[in-house]
Amino acid sequence: MENGKRASWSGQLAFVIAAAASAIGLGNLWRFPYLAAQYGGGIFIAIYLVLVVTLGFTLMVTEIAVGRKTQQAPLTAYSLLHRKWGFVGFLGTIIPVLITPYYCVIGGWVLYYLKAYAQIAFTGVDVLGEGAANSGAFFSSFISAPFAPFGYGLVFILACAAVIVLGVKNGIEKSNMIMMPVLFVMAIAISLYVVFLPGSGDGLKYYLVPNLDCVTGPDGRFSIALLGKTILGAMGQMFYSLSLAMGIMITYGSYMKKTDSIEKCVRRIEVFDTLIALIAGLMIIPVVYMFAVKTGTDVHDAMNAGPGLMFITLPKVFATLGAVGPWIGMGFFLLVAFAAATSAISLFEACVASACDMLKIERKAATFFTTALIMFLSVFSALGYGAWGHVKLHVFPNDGGMQFLDFFDFITNSVLMPVVAIATCIFVGWVMGPRAVIDECEAGGCKMKAKGVYTVMVKYLAPALMVALLISEVCRALGIGGWKI
Ligand code: PHE
Description:
Blueprint: H1 12-23, H2 26-38, H3 42-70, H4 74-81, H5 86-123, H6 135-143, H7 148-165, H8 168-195, H9 201-208, H10 224-241, H11 248-253, H12 262-295, H13 299-302, H14 306-319, H15 325-359, H16 363-383, H17 404-432, H18 434-441, H19 451-477
The structure holds phenylalanine.
């Protein structure tokens, strides 16, 4: 609420940019390139694209329509549509409350690296040490420090809170207008630099050319099980990358004008998000490939995902680029910081908007309480690799245990998010009926083109695929079924 009236975007473009800013995040940068490299390059990319325009489209249209129709954030949106289905909104609100703290802790790691690279670039002091040869030790000594990970996370949280308190137009929209163009320009500049580096050709081939190894069993024959794993891998990535089932698209949809076309907006968001994922691959894969060849490492082993890629491998790679290395490193971490910030802001907003709508309080008060809660919860993830490193959380008695950050990640990404998506599809497909969403899409007078695809997807295919994803994610996290990735 802003001045008693529901806030709204200043226009269709502002909404598309905000939703794309949420979608473009760490998932695009540290997970997509790795999955594409491990799952057969072009094959993975093709499967990913098909899933984005079908399943991703369906889920995103649904969430945005629920938000716009109810003019509510997730916590109250579902109960307004149907008294008995309010629990979906409740689950959908717990997700951002659990993700925001650990996402901000990772944002803090990125700030720490940004500072380190700025120091190297501007002062020449080699803080990473010996051409980043010890980047592994540098990273682990940081994340296990008693206070630093919390301190940097706190800076990140407060920066997001400062944007949120300013509101939808003055805070979120304006900050996106600065961060998103910088992110795009940086990504294009770094990827062009990498693509034109002498010797990048083999890495590009490795990334883009379809490689059947990912669907070939040890006996050299086509394996349907491996194809299934590739599809599920692409599906999990797409689901996360489009910021689905996190309450975000419902919240952002609730600020959308009735006259704007949901269908067109979703198509544009998909294009932006996929483009940055593809560009991230161009930035990262060729240099990691060249680095692996130079150091005699197996390419598959060098191409890791997540924190290992971003905070350990890439600094080593940047160190091989000579005098431009620190500048590329600084540009890269600035890009990552912006990508993480715009995603964290959207998560934060889902929490704040839910508090505003449920408790009927002003944005300032809701931001204050939400920030306090997020700060408190972030302590667990920030200290989980250091002072509280001995604490292990179990899902099953003998699963080996997980650190706080991994545990929150597992509960949200692998369990709650697919469950919320399944419940949403069943509710919309069978209780409320797809017609309600189609009508909402056509409220502004524009016809929805993909009505048929939408109806079939939301009723049958999407819930079935989401159940498969839920099962596979749980098996993967618990090490059942020999998942490689
Ligand atoms: N879509 C984001 C990404 O790719 C995921 C995300 C969004 C995570 C918002 C947290 C908050 O990283």
